[in-house]
Amino acid sequence: MTLELSDRSALREARVPAGGILEGPRVLNRLPEGVEPRPYELFGVRPLGRVIGAEIDGVDLGEPLTPELREELNRALLEWKVLFFRDQDITPAQQRAFARNWGPLETNPFIPAGDTDEVTRFERSASMPGFENIWHTDVTFRPNPALGSVLRLVTVPPVGGDTMWADMAAAYDNLPEDVKARIDGLKAVHDYLPGFDRFSDPEVLARWQEQFPPVEHPVVRRHPETGRRTLFVNQSFTTHIVGMDRDESDRLLHYLFTQAHVPEYQVRFRWTENAVAFWDNRATQHYAVNDYAPHPRVAERVAIAGDRPF
């Protein structure tokens, strides 16, 4: 018997649990609607993914940026969301100087510091395993989450230790229309405690509760430079949706969290000695793959202060 594709009356009832990710074509727009890609004149660009991630050739991060180079790098950052630079033998001071081209730097009291408080140091080993292996956006527990971060690996494990990023504008673009309508205008609460309470001293966490109360951010934020709508909830820091009962909020957040897991929205970077990553924290989530034990992995990050999501 031959069935028309629209005729399912002869099929038995069978379904997977609701609230998951469906297969099929995806909308993969790297740039905002109506914006055409332009060539880069001051450096080479080697894409690593369809919508996110590119290696930049011909830029020395240890040298001061001209206004023209800074503008072109910023355009590349907005287009590719995370930029990778290999063979950058720079000092922490040069790393900080590069990041300051995008604004003042912030500190993080929950992570050990490097040579200054503006540098956070992730020193991982068999006795101190990493806990960044969850999809997240950095410091959304702040009223003004970071604009972006510059990360360099001080010690690269011989195997494993990759970092992945996901384009959360692509994640939003591919939501069903009814979900987009449902989350339009909603706000969610973000708190630092879920992201640190399993791995930090409770006394240290308690000390910062007054300075870092829970904050509300839109579930969908608009990127302040591109105007793209971006899914802005993450499993490390988003606790619940404002005005929704806990069970309903948990179900919706679980569904939204899983959108970062789609490979078409992702890029995966294999670190090499003196490689640097610079990402737009307003547009992405990231995940540090924790598969390198017992080898050490040491990274230093500088974060650029951001603005209030809207």
UniProtKB/TrEMBL annotation:
TauD/TfdA-like domain residues: 45-301
Record-annotated membrane-spanning stretches: none
InterPro entries given in the database record: AtsK-like, TauD-like_sf, TauD/TfdA-like
Recorded superkingdom: Bacteria
Gene Ontology molecular functions: dioxygenase activity
Keyword tags: Dioxygenase, Iron, Metal-binding, Oxidoreductase
Record flagged with keyword Nuclease: no
Family: Belongs to the TfdA dioxygenase family.
Name this protein carries in UniProt: Taurine dioxygenase
